[in-house]
Amino acid sequence: MKETAARLRRAARIARVTGRAGLRERLANKGDFVLAIVNGVTYQITVLLFATVVFTRFPPLAGWTVAQVLLVSSVRLLAHSVFVLGFTNVREIPYLIRQGRFDSFLVRPAPVFLQVCTSRFPLNAVGDLTVAATSLGVCLSMLRLDWTLARIGSLVLAVAGGAALELALALCVAGLVLRRAGTEALFSWLDTVIGAFGNYPLNVFPAVLRAAFTFGLPVAFVAFYPVAAVLGKAASVPYGPALTLAAPLVATVWLALGGWAWRTGLRTYTRRGW
What keywords would UniProt list here (predicted)? Predict the structure, then answer.
């Protein structure tokens, strides 16, 4: 127990030191600092505006009102922001390899995953979090829900579970990238799929996509199923109301899979001649 606590304290110290170094590096270029924050704000606002325009131009779809749809989008964006703040550098592994920095992580006396996550401070997370939190506040004021402790807990768990799922999927791709060159495009594909389909109720998609995002790539568990539980709409979701409570289990399973993929990738990784 003492040894585990000591390792955690050491990891926390390393994270603080490398995190501060990464932040100082980003602050050295004021233009990059401003543009990174603006990029985060612009991306999040664009996603929300698109969802708002689509669902205000049409009557409620599949029993979901505009405010309810925007809650799905807001939770998804907030979960994504949490992921970006802590773990987005996992998606930078192809660039770290090309720069030769990743190989240096392998010989340092610190966890490789921790070094990757703290190698560069994600300034765009500031804009992401600001817009996502603002959007969530607006949605909640529109919905006027009765906020019990159970409902608050469900909402917090929804955001945490969505961030965990994004991390798990990024680790799966990272493990593949470490094993095989030329698979880097999967990071962009994954980000596009979650961003394009994770902001809307699963009910509005064709049956093949509903099945794919529930039993294949777990996009629907990032926000849709947990938000359905928060809104009390469990009875209306595809494949049964039990799935609205399954997001933590799904996130745990995928994190285990992502951890295995990451460890396997590290064991089989060899230096590449970029």
Answer: Membrane, Transmembrane, Transmembrane helix
